[in-house]
Specification:
The structure is a single chain. By secondary structure, the chain is of the alpha+beta class. It is 29% helix and 32% strand.
């Protein structure tokens, strides 16, 4: 305890010394300043004018700096008592609603089924039974090859098979009468079966001369002509010169156009959202547009999400199917795809133009019952085509959409005549679409990381 008491005594002594030193310093400053104060009494207009002329640039610089600091302070720290008259604003009342979480992407139209027709045997084309661009059904006859040799071979083997069958039936009767042995009967049966198998093989060989469509679809350009020599297992293209026409490749391509598919990719971060929705048992919906000037939208469903991610682009392939009754979509066209990944339940949505961005973050102006404005900090969860889902406000709040540029916290307002009406329940399921064509989500909702998309 003695050490503590001695330390306190030393501290009290030092405080007394500091007090005396401060008095001495203040007295010295007063003695230096008193002559200058006496000079102020001698100031007149002439001396003031001479001082201003001598230091005019320094005085102007000081005034500019003070003015700039004043304006900066008013901007970053606005005072409610400085607000003038009421500001005309347009507002919207925030309501809870389900907002679709949309991922946008670009894809390619692909056929649901496409088949290159090639011959199974080397032969010449005898007859072409279709025209370029014709619609065909599965089983329709497309080409007839020269079948004379195969038909004669089949008829020969068919006759031998019929004769062998008759020999077997005759031997069966003779066995019952003990005219031949059972071994002879078995030999006759083997001969009959062998002849029938040879006849069936000849029938299959003959069928190769009649080329039929394996699927329903539309035929492309026919690459062969009557009399053209086609070869088995060759790639088919047609080359025409001034002297001859030769064909190597597919004879024709059959493409299924209705329904048709669209294939696109989505970012890796959006995969959990897709898979979670698929687990619910409901197919994902897509909307497809083709061409910049196309106004028609095709609606379809997702068929499959690929089972692996492409590491080079950090994305996964998705294939969806859409109807093509009018046959206006063709494979290879580029398409814009909007994939409805999921719904944000009971979300608070406002027009994106209502969000104010400044160095301190993102805000919206809300009005109380007296029409006074308040600046509320918010967080943008998702943004798409002029509509933003935000947190930080409550359902029923009145948010300023237009006129916020002249508004200050605590300022008075008056409602414009054409104020934005609250969105009705019938409009709750569709997003607002007044702005940009493809905005990506600003941040991830509780269960996903949309992008818009980077389905966008």
């Amino acid at each position: 305890m003695s050490k503590i008491e001695s330390s306190l005594d030393q501290l009290v002594a030092k405080l007394g010394q500091l007090k005396n030193v401060a008095k001495i310093r203040l007295c010295a400053l007063w003695q230096k300043a008193s002559p200058q104060l006496s000079k102020l009494k001698q100031l007149n207009i002439a001396t003031i004018k001479a001082f201003v002329v001598k230091f005019k640039w320094r005085i102007l610089l000081v005034l500019i700096v003070l003015y700039s600091l004043s304006k900066a302070y008013d901007y970053f720290f606005p005072q409610p008592d400085k607000s003038g008259g009421p500001v005309t604003v347009s507002t919207v009342i925030v309501e809870k609603k389900d907002v679709p979480l949309i991922i946008e992407a670009t894809g390619t139209i692909v056929s649901n089924s496409i088949v290159d027709i090639r011959p199974m045997v080397t032969n010449t084309v005898a007859k072409i039974n279709i025209k370029d661009g014709q619609e065909v059904k599965a089983g329709d006859l497309l080409f007839t090859l020269d079948d004379r040799n195969d038909k004669a071979n089949y008829e020969k083997l068919k006759a031998l098979a019929d004769d062998a069958q008759k020999q077997y039936l005759r031997a069966k009767e003779l066995v019952t009468k003990n005219f031949i042995s059972k071994a002879g009967l078995e030999t006759s049966l083997a001969n009959a079966k062998s002849a029938q198998a040879a006849a069936k093989a000849a029938e299959v060989q003959l069928s190769f001369d009649y080329i039929r469509s394996p699927i329903d679809g539309r035929a492309g350009i026919v690459n062969v002509f009557p009399g053209s020599l086609v070869q088995a297992s060759n790639v088919v293209t047609t080359a025409t010169s001034s002297t001859a026409t030769s064909s190597v490749g597919s004879m024709v391509t059959i493409t299924q156009l209705n329904p048709i598919n669209v294939q696109f990719v989505i970012p890796e971060k959006d995969i959990p959202t897709l898979l979670e929705n698929q687990l619910d048992g409901e197919p994902l919906k897509v909307k497809v547009t083709v061409g910049d000037s196309s106004k028609k939208t095709y609606e379809g469903t997702v068929l499959v999400v690929d089972n692996q991610v492409d590491p080079s682009i950090a994305a996964v392939r998705v294939k969806a199917q859409i109807p093509n009754d009018a046959m206006t979509l063709l494979p290879g066209q580029f398409a814009g795809v909007s994939l409805v990944a999921s719904d944000l339940k009971d979300a608070l949505s406002v027009p994106s133009q209502a969000v104010v961005i400044n160095p301190r973050g993102k805000f919206v102006f809300t009005l109380d019952k007296d029409g006074k404005a308040s600046m509320v900090p918010i967080k943008v969860v998702y943004e798409y085509q002029g509509s933003s889902v935000i947190t930080g406000i409550q359902a029923g709040d009145k948010v300023v959409v237009e006129g916020k540029q002249n508004l200050r916290p605590g300022g008075k307002t008056r409602e414009a005549k054409s104020s934005t009406k609250p969105e009705s329940k019938s409009e709750a399921s569709t997003p607002v679409t007044p702005a940009t064509p493809a905005l990506t989500p600003a941040s991830a909702p509780p269960s996903a990381n949309p992008s818009a998309a980077d389905k966008k």
